[in-house]
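Both lines are given unchanged directly below:

***
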Amino acid sequence: FKFVLFYARRAFLTKGKKMAKSLHSFSKFLAKAGSNVQGKTFVAAACVPQTRNYSRGSKRIKVANPVVELDGDEMTRIIWEKIKERLIFPYVDVDCKYYDLGLPYRDQTNDQVTIDSAEAIKKYNVGIKCATITPDEQRVEEFKLKKMWLSPNGTIRNILGGTVFREPIICKTIPRLVPGWTRPIVIGRHAHGDQYKATDYVIQGEGTLDLVFTPAKGGQPVKLPVFNFKKGGGVGLAMYNTDESITGFAHACFQYALMKGWPLYMSTKNTILKKYDGRFKDIFQEIYEKEYTGEFEKKGIWYEHRLIDDMVAQCLKSSGGFVWACKNYDGDVQSDIVAQGYGSLGLMTSVLVCPDGKTIEAEAAHGTVTRHYREHQKGNPTSTNPIASIYAWTRGLDHRGKLDGNSELQQFATKLEKACVDCVDKGKMTKDLAGCIYGLKNVKTEHYLYTMDFLDAIAEEYDSQQ
C-alpha cells in the first residue's frame, strides 16, 4: 500500500494522462483481488494495536487521548478508509489504536483480535467501529474459515456490557413514513436473555410441564406447575434474566438520557408478567429514585414506566425527542420499525453505552453492503451511503471530546454531522436516499452521486461552513 500511495502522488503531481490511466487500472486490479486483499490490509504480525499517523499540517485539532479504531469488511471497509482520508484526519490529530476486525484477520487470529479490541475500548473508553461480517455457512465456505466465528458485536458487548442505542439521522428532504416524527426517537435494547437465551421444547403427547429452581447452596427445590397437557402435545418455553444485567441496562439508559437531555421511557407488559416484567419495572424505579432523580430534574427531563401497548401508541402520536428502553424482543422489533418510520435504514446510528456512562463504542447500524462490494470488485463505481459510518466517527470523537474537555473536537463532530445533513437537504445524496424521494424505479443518474463524489461534497460543505 506504500506503493499505491507513491503511485497516486506521482499521478497527481505529473498530471499525466497515461499515469492516471495506469493508476485507474491498478485500482481495478486491487478491487478484483477481492476478499483476500481486503482481509490483508494493514494486518499486524501479532494481535496488537497499530497507531496510524496522518500528517496534514499544524491546523488540525489536537486530541489528548487515543480512540480505538475497529476496521471491518467489504464495501464499508473501502468507504471507511476514504472517510478517514477525506473527512477525519485532515482536520483531527488523533492517535488511533487500530484493530483489524476484517473476517480474514479474525480467522487468522482465532478471533483474538476481537477480544483484544474490546479490552482496548475498556482502557481508552472510546471505540469507533466499521461494519463487520458475522459468518454463516456460506461465508465459512467463501472465506475458507477455520470455524463459524461469533458476531464481533456480540463478543464486544459481552466483554463491555452495556446497551446498544439506535438513533435516526433526520434529513428534511427524506420523506418520513411517520411525518410527525420531527425529532429523533432513540431505542435502547436490552440485548440479554429473555427469548434469545430461552430453552424451548416440543411436547409429544399428554403430560405435565413444570418449572423447577434448585438452590445452589442447598435447600428445597421450588417447583411451579406450568401446564397439564391433557389433549395431546404442544410446546413449552423457559426463559430468564438476571438482576445484574437489568441493573446494568438501567444505568446505561439513565446515562444515555442524561447525555441527550431527553426523557426516558421504559416499557414492559407487567400487567401480564407480574413477576418477570415487574422485576424490570421495580429495578428501574429503585435506581432512578436512588441515583438519578436529581440529575434528571436539573435537566428538566423525567423517567416514566409505560405498558408496551400504550407506549407503541404514544410513540406513533409523538413528535419524538425521547429515549425508549425496551426489553430484548421489543427492542429487536421496535428498532427496525422506528428506523423505517424515519425513512431509511441507512440513516441510523448505533452506540453501545456501558453502565459507567464513560465507555462507548459507536458504529453504523447497517451491514457491510455486500451487493455493492461485488460491483466494486468488478471495478464499477457504487453509490453507497456513507453517512452512518461518518456518524460512527463523529459520535466517537464527540464522546472523546466530552471526556477530555475538548470543546473544539466536539464542535468538529457537530459541524461534520451538519455538513452531511445539509448535503442531503441540498439534493446531494446517494442512490438509496434518492430512492426514498423519487422511488427506486424512478431514480435517474442526475438524482444521485457516486460514493466518492458524495464524500467530496460533504468535505466541501464542511469547509464552506468554516
